[in-house]
Design goal:
The protein has 11 helices and 13 strands. The radius of gyration is 22 Å and the shape is globular. The mean pLDDT is about 85. The protein has 3 domains: about 140 residues, 3-Layer(aba) Sandwich (Rossmann fold), CATH 3.40.50.720; about 35 residues, no CATH class; about 110 residues, 2-Layer Sandwich (GMP Synthetase, Chain A, domain 3), CATH 3.30.300.30. Helix 6 packs across helix 7. By secondary structure, the protein is α/β, with parallel strands linked by helices. The longest helix is centred in the C-terminal third of the chain and has 18 residues.
Length: about 300
């Protein structure tokens, strides 16, 4: 919202509570709507469309959509002719879009995968980052950090995020530095949600059957990536579908389901360097190579 305002756009916001909408307005939105937390198809969608058209009677030029689900269609119905619907994620599920709307409005639905963009156009990404830093240095945007926790209260910070009541950003601090739970290169982006695999690995390593584990993102046709755990068991003879299901359920009892493996593979050993560092890139690449080969066959 701040970036849109700084670039001269009239920003409208959608939020699940009035408190969140008020916060959005304080960050640059000029108006908006409060939508139902669990929007049902049919009449509730039509009512949301009506309310969106009230705040944008001439239509909107760009929709920034990290939510998906039943919310996407009402937003698309409010699109101005020639507009763009940016698909950033689908935390509410994968939407079902009537494609005749794109014809009637001569509009575009565009997937926005920042991770792929960084890999394929690093120079373009650098230019964007420099533009953001310039906006920040000029005071036109600022980080909206609303809650800060010391390292020993990190579980409390995670619980706040999972409760979906957070407004703004939550940070965990170590002395005067922000704490990241994993290297950016290892981050998994599934349906627009950032997942740091170290947290999932830490949970799996607590199970008595697990000797070693690597959690990686593997290609998923619907969500971009999904979480996979590659596990070395203490007793290799126990490798089975039942053991895989047991370990997935073990994670689901301790973590947000988004962070839990959707599948488990068993390995006789995981690649490590001479110093003992897990070479996660090698694990991840073998699945990406297999997926690329499968795509060519299809």
């Amino acid at each position: 919202m701040e970036v849109g305002r700084a670039l001269g756009a009239k920003v409208l916001a959608g939020a699940s509570t009035q408190k969140k909408l008020d916060f959005a307005k304080s960050c640059g939105a000029v108006d908006g709507v409060v939508y139902e937390a669990d929007l049902l198809p049919g009449d509730p969608q039509r009512e949301l469309t009506r309310r969106l058209k009230q705040v944008a009677p001439e239509g909107v030029d760009v929709v920034f959509d990290p939510v998906g689900g039943n919310y996407s269609e009402p937003a698309l119905r409010c699109m101005a002719r020639g507009g763009r619907h940016l698909v950033v994620g689908f935390t509410a599920g994968i939407p079902k879009i009537p494609l005749n709307l794109t014809l009637l409005k001569s509009c575009q639905i565009v997937g926005v995968d920042w991770r792929t963009f960084v890999r394929e156009d690093p120079e373009g990404n650098s230019r964007n980052v420099m533009s953001l830093l310039e906006l920040w240095s000029n005071g036109r945007i600022r980080p909206q950090v609303t809650e800060s926790y010391p390292m020993e209260k990190a579980p409390q910070a995670i619980a706040r995020l999972e409760g979906r009541d957070v407004i703004g950003k939550v940070v965990v601090e170590v002395s005067d530095y922000l704490y990241l739970t994993d290297r950016r290169a290892n981050m998994i982006i599934s349906g627009g949600v950032n997942i740091y695999p170290q947290e999932t690995e830490n949970v799996l390593l607590q199970h008595p059957l697990v000797a070693d584990v690597a959690v990686v993102g593997v290609p998923n046709a619907d969500f971009g990536e999904e979480v996979k755990a590659v596990i070395e068991l203490r007793d290799p003879s126990q490798a089975s579908a039942a053991t895989a299901a047991l370990l997935i359920e073990y994670c689901r009892q301790r973590l947000s389901h988004l962070k839990c493996p959707r599948s488990v593979d068993f390995a006789s050993g995981l690649p490590r360097s001479e110093t003992g560092k897990l070479l996660k890139r090698l694990v991840r690449d073998q699945y990406r190579t297999a997926s690329a080969s499968q795509s060519k066959v299809n």
